Amino acid sequence: MKKEVFLKKWEGHIIDDWCTVVSDDFKAFARSFRSYMGAIAKTCDASIVKFHIGHYDLSGFLQKDEKFCYFSYSVPRHLPIQTKNAECVCGVLYREANDTDDYHGGANHFTSLADMDTAISRFLAGLAAE
């Protein structure tokens, strides 16, 4: 999914919360997020090697050559999605990992949904996280 389409579709959207089960709205967001992450991976010559859809949260690993990048995003509950917010509560966490089972890897970095493509591309290219 193209960045502009993803951001336009989800900016300010409040995901339906069905409490004990995930809503169809969240499932649609998860599909869009995975597609957007796939587009990011493609632009930096990486691949999604693991993708997990949890209870209103998403996580996974990208791999480029021998480098792994773990990412995680928790959908805000009862609040609008803020695609330009990079704070730890609203942003996307990413960090270096040793492999697809390393959930305790390098230092945490946060970026917004809007800047995720640039941040992760730079990270996988070996440039310092901003």
Description of the structure:
About 30% of the residues lie in helices and about 25% in strands. It has helices at about 5-10, 25-45, 115-125; strands at about 45-55, 55-65, 65-75, 90-95, 110.
List keywords for this structure.
single chain; 130 residues; alpha+beta; five-stranded antiparallel β-sheet; 3 helices; 28% helix; globular
Structural class: alpha+beta
- Fraction of residues in H or I helices: 25-40%
Number of helices: 3
Shape: globular
Strand order, sheet with most strands: 1-2-3-4-5
Order of helices and strands: HHEEEEEH
Low-confidence stretches: none
Radius of gyration: 14 Å
Alpha carbon gap, first and last residue? 24 Å
Proportion in β-strands: 15-25%
* Major sheet attributes: 5 strands, antiparallel
Helix and strand layout, with pairings?
Elements: H1 3-10, H2 24-43, E1 47-53, E2 57-64, E3 67-74, E4 92-97, E5 109-111, H3 116-124
Helix pairs in contact: 2-3
Brief synopsis:
The chain contains three helices and five strands; from the N terminus they run H-H-E-E-E-E-E-H.
